[in-house]
Protein backbone atom coordinates (compact mmCIF):
# COMPACT_ATOMS: atom_id res chain seq x y z
CA UNK A 1 0.00 0.00 0.00
CA UNK A 2 1.12 3.51 -0.72
CA UNK A 3 2.32 5.36 2.42
CA UNK A 4 -0.34 8.06 1.98
CA UNK A 5 -3.07 5.42 1.88
CA UNK A 6 -1.57 3.74 4.95
CA UNK A 7 -1.78 7.12 6.67
CA UNK A 8 -5.41 7.48 5.62
CA UNK A 9 -6.11 3.99 6.96
CA UNK A 10 -4.56 4.95 10.31
CA UNK A 11 -6.51 8.23 10.48
CA UNK A 12 -9.73 6.36 9.70
CA UNK A 13 -9.01 3.95 12.54
CA UNK A 14 -8.42 6.83 14.96
CA UNK A 15 -11.56 8.63 13.75
CA UNK A 16 -13.62 5.47 14.18
CA UNK A 17 -12.38 5.01 17.75
CA UNK A 18 -13.10 8.67 18.53
CA UNK A 19 -16.64 8.31 17.15
CA UNK A 20 -17.25 5.27 19.33
CA UNK A 21 -15.84 7.07 22.38
CA UNK A 22 -18.15 10.06 21.79
CA UNK A 23 -21.10 7.73 21.34
CA UNK A 24 -20.17 5.85 24.52
CA UNK A 25 -19.98 9.10 26.49
CA UNK A 26 -23.49 10.01 25.38
CA UNK A 27 -24.95 6.72 26.62
CA UNK A 28 -25.04 7.61 30.31
CA UNK A 29 -24.55 10.64 32.55
CA UNK A 30 -21.58 11.11 34.85
CA UNK A 31 -19.03 8.44 35.54
CA UNK A 32 -21.09 5.72 33.85
CA UNK A 33 -20.74 7.66 30.60
CA UNK A 34 -16.99 7.84 31.14
CA UNK A 35 -16.88 4.07 31.54
CA UNK A 36 -18.77 3.71 28.26
CA UNK A 37 -16.44 6.22 26.63
CA UNK A 38 -13.38 4.19 27.62
CA UNK A 39 -14.90 0.71 27.44
CA UNK A 40 -16.38 0.73 23.94
CA UNK A 41 -13.14 1.76 22.18
CA UNK A 42 -11.13 -0.58 24.44
CA UNK A 43 -13.20 -3.56 23.32
CA UNK A 44 -12.82 -2.52 19.69
CA UNK A 45 -9.05 -2.06 20.05
CA UNK A 46 -8.77 -5.52 21.62
CA UNK A 47 -10.65 -7.13 18.74
CA UNK A 48 -8.81 -5.01 16.15
CA UNK A 49 -5.39 -6.06 17.41
CA UNK A 50 -6.25 -9.69 18.11
CA UNK A 51 -7.30 -10.79 14.64
CA UNK A 52 -4.69 -10.57 11.89
CA UNK A 53 -3.96 -11.88 8.43
CA UNK A 54 -0.34 -12.95 7.88
CA UNK A 55 1.36 -10.70 5.35
CA UNK A 56 -1.25 -7.94 5.48
CA UNK A 57 0.47 -4.85 4.05
CA UNK A 58 -1.63 -2.50 6.19
CA UNK A 59 -0.56 -3.83 9.57
CA UNK A 60 2.13 -5.85 11.35
CA UNK A 61 1.72 -9.59 11.89
CA UNK A 62 1.36 -9.36 15.65
CA UNK A 63 -2.18 -10.56 16.23
CA UNK A 64 -2.88 -13.48 18.52
CA UNK A 65 -5.42 -15.09 16.18
CA UNK A 66 -4.83 -15.67 12.49
CA UNK A 67 -8.00 -15.24 10.43
CA UNK A 68 -8.79 -15.46 6.72
CA UNK A 69 -8.68 -12.23 4.75
CA UNK A 70 -12.44 -12.03 4.20
CA UNK A 71 -13.02 -12.15 7.97
CA UNK A 72 -10.48 -9.39 8.62
CA UNK A 73 -12.16 -7.28 5.94
CA UNK A 74 -15.54 -7.93 7.56
CA UNK A 75 -14.16 -6.77 10.94
CA UNK A 76 -12.76 -3.61 9.38
CA UNK A 77 -16.00 -2.81 7.61
CA UNK A 78 -17.96 -3.47 10.81
CA UNK A 79 -15.80 -0.95 12.68
CA UNK A 80 -16.30 1.78 10.09
CA UNK A 81 -20.03 1.09 9.70
CA UNK A 82 -20.59 1.05 13.47
CA UNK A 83 -18.68 4.31 13.78
CA UNK A 84 -20.82 5.95 11.11
CA UNK A 85 -23.96 4.65 12.81
CA UNK A 86 -22.70 6.03 16.13
CA UNK A 87 -22.30 9.47 14.55
CA UNK A 88 -25.77 9.19 13.03
CA UNK A 89 -27.17 8.27 16.44
CA UNK A 90 -25.52 11.40 17.84
CA UNK A 91 -27.30 13.47 15.17
CA UNK A 92 -24.13 14.12 13.15
CA UNK A 93 -25.21 12.74 9.80
CA UNK A 94 -22.81 15.16 8.10
CA UNK A 95 -19.82 13.62 9.86
CA UNK A 96 -21.19 10.12 9.31
CA UNK A 97 -21.39 10.80 5.58
CA UNK A 98 -17.84 12.18 5.60
CA UNK A 99 -16.58 9.09 7.40
CA UNK A 100 -18.31 6.80 4.91
CA UNK A 101 -16.92 8.82 1.98
CA UNK A 102 -13.37 8.70 3.38
CA UNK A 103 -13.71 4.96 4.00
CA UNK A 104 -14.91 4.37 0.45
CA UNK A 105 -12.03 6.47 -0.87
CA UNK A 106 -9.55 4.47 1.18
CA UNK A 107 -10.90 1.11 0.02
CA UNK A 108 -11.06 2.37 -3.55
CA UNK A 109 -7.38 3.32 -3.37
CA UNK A 110 -6.46 0.00 -1.76
CA UNK A 111 -8.35 -2.25 -4.17
CA UNK A 112 -5.27 -4.49 -4.53
CA UNK A 113 -5.36 -5.20 -0.79
CA UNK A 114 -9.10 -5.88 -1.01
CA UNK A 115 -8.53 -8.43 -3.77
CA UNK A 116 -5.68 -9.95 -1.78
CA UNK A 117 -7.90 -10.30 1.31
CA UNK A 118 -10.80 -11.76 -0.67
CA UNK A 119 -8.62 -14.27 -2.55
CA UNK A 120 -8.15 -16.13 0.67
CA UNK A 121 -4.84 -14.73 1.83
Task: Report what the structure shows.
The chain has one domain. The chain has helices at residues 3-25, 30-50, 69-89, 93-109, 111-118; strands spanning 51-52, 65-66. By secondary structure, it is mainly alpha-helical. The protein has a two-stranded parallel sheet. It is built from five helices and two strands; from the N terminus they run ααββααα.
Short description:
74% of the residues lie in helices and 3% in strands. The chain has 121 residues and is mostly helical. α3 (69-89) runs antiparallel to α4.
Keywords:
121 residues; mainly alpha; two-stranded parallel ribbon; 5 helices
Summarize the biggest pleated sheet: 2 strands, parallel
Please give the number of β-strands: 2
* Beta fraction: under 5%
Major sheet strand order: 1-2
The termini sit apart by 16 Å
Mean of the pLDDT scores?
A: 91
SSE order: HHEEHHH
Our count of domains comes out at: 1
Helix/strand class: mainly alpha
Q: What shape does the CA trace take?
A: globular
Radius of gyration from the alpha-carbon trace, in angstroms: 15 Å
Number of helices: 5
What is the share of helical residues? over 70%
Low-confidence stretches are none
Amino acid sequence: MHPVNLGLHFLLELAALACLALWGRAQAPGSAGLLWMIGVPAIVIAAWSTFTVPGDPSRPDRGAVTVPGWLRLLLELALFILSALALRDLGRTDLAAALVAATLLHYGLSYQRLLWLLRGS
